[in-house]
Target: Transcription initiation factor TFIID subunit 5
Amino acid sequence: DRQTLVAVLQFLRRSNLRESEEILRREARLLGDDLGGNVATVATSSPGVAAVAAVPPGKGETRGDCGAGPSSRRESREVGSPCAARCLGGSPFLSEQLLLLTGAVAVGGAVVVEDQPDVSAVLSAYNQQGDPTLYEEYYSGLKHFIECSLDCHRAELSQLFYPLFVHMYLELVYNQHESEAKSFFERFHGDQECYYQDDLRVLSSLTKKEHMKGNETMLDFRTSKFVLRISRDSYQLLKRHLQEKQNNQIWNIVQEHLYIDIFDGMPRSKQQIDAMVGSLAGEAKREANKAKVFFGLLKEPEFDVPLDDEDEEGENEEGKPKKKKPKKDNVGSKSKKQDPNAPPQNRIPLPELKDSDKLDKVMNMKEAARRVRLGPECLPSICFYTFLNAYQGLTAVDITDDSSMIVGGFADSTVRVWSVTPKKLRSVKTAADLSLIDKESDDVLERIMDEKTASELKILYGHSGPVYGTSFSPDRNYLLSCSEDGTVRLWSLQTFTCLVGYKGHNYPVWDTQFSPYGYYFVSGGHDRVARLWATDHYQPLRIFAGHLADVTCTRFHPNSNYIATGSADRTIRLWDVLNGNCVRIFTGHKGPIHSLAFSPNGRFLATGATDGRVLLWDIGHGLMVGELKGHTDTVYALRFSRDGEILASGSMDNTVRLWDAVKAFEDLETDDFTTATGHINLPENSQDLLLGTYMTKSTPVIHLHFTRRNLLLAAGAYSSQ
Model:
């Protein structure tokens, strides 16, 4: 809109903001000095900029304002209308705003700042020179206002304390007011919520401008807007207060560094807010959890189950239950119909079933027919594998789906595989011996194995640092391990040698896991990204970037179309394998996430973290639906029983706890209002969901696994302290 642009330029000239005028003129490619009617035509790339400047004062200053048009909420890094609201208010910070605009790219009429910011450009936003001596007064004034406001608004507005505290402190440090910064920090850091203590420790070490340049945490805080979800009434109250007090410094920070996601309706209670906050960048925007997710299960391939002779006698009276498909989901197992929430069968290419896979499925069905139905009245037996004398330091465990092998990753960089059945582990014979075998014989698969190599334990050498994650392939032919050395290795369980080293992460890799269909696997590490790989590609197929800290754990959804990642930024993200998009962001944990488990029917996700809480999420609606409190230390292991009736959690507090999953997920409040506002009402007490607590003598639990018949296996290394 050329007229508006001209009006803004005239206003800038009247206000003696020559520099800003020049920048805007350059940006809009306006030539000539005449600001009358005959201004040269505006170049086509300017609509984004013009749109930014053309917002009348007081309109749309909230980034997440429900009334704003779609373009104003397109991207958290969008330089939205706020700067316009301020341009027209004649604020002295205008030149700064427009400087920010010059680093922006116009995309379809919206100005989106590029994702990977140059450090100095990012920090330059702190150039705003307020009077350093007044910062404490500003902050305590706002604090007093919030503490004196009505209870219903106080809980919501208290969310502002932490992000404002951080940004004001950083602004003081950046502008080299070191003594004021120190005094500001000492006076107010004690007021912040306890779950921000670790972040504040990092912050307290940033005392000079130079420190800020290389600090990643700092850069994250600057580049990703802190998200606050506040009701419209509370927001209006805050806005009125800041405008009356003419508290520009705080208002600028709110505009510049916070994303306020406004909703209509009742303000949330302290308990509702506490359940959802605590991550590095505040809550997730509601927009982030709106995308459709196909959480249903894929249809199983159909093939007949041959009946063995002994099965004929034993099982026929029951009406041949084995002919049924024992789908993990106890509801969907009866019908062969496609689940309405399932992704299309060919949405992502999955490997063909080999004959050996079909045999394994048949075995699985037979086992499933003898499966114990668990419930509050029928709890599973727990078999605990304790690693004794694990002086090498046990760092990871996995158990094969058929519970025949167990693997341990150790801090001395070895991977050790044990057979937990009487059948010993054997390698394939040498090439010379293989050439002598009759390939047509029925027992050729037995003959190729070398009896001389049979042993209960195989040690795999290859990594050059502690091994943090291990995962067996579903067909038990391969094993993955990931390590501090930055590689993921694929081992053959036929030859017990390393087949491939996947190099992509430059830093330690914390976790890796095979897809439930094999072939694909995921890894996550200190470089803050998760990578999707296929066993036959040495480069990753997808890179999932978005977490603000290490990706500490990874999990495939049962239908293999999605991957969940947990991070030290205290959020969980769900990624779409097909296009690499992030389709869910879950906030609520108060510490780094260390365990993830999908329910067998694919609808729910359970997550555990260093805060000792287990949170339950409804994937379809993108909502937290439960909180299980009881553990007193990091929850390192979570697993649903095969039918999804029971959730088992294992922790560093040396206990395994069993929870009633059926009860936790029934009567869910997932009406439209809850989904729209994120108002969740968690029961006060999760004790009625706790079915049992089982102590070990002195063994932290780092892995859990339900056998095909619902026996619970747990594993950990005995610690003598």
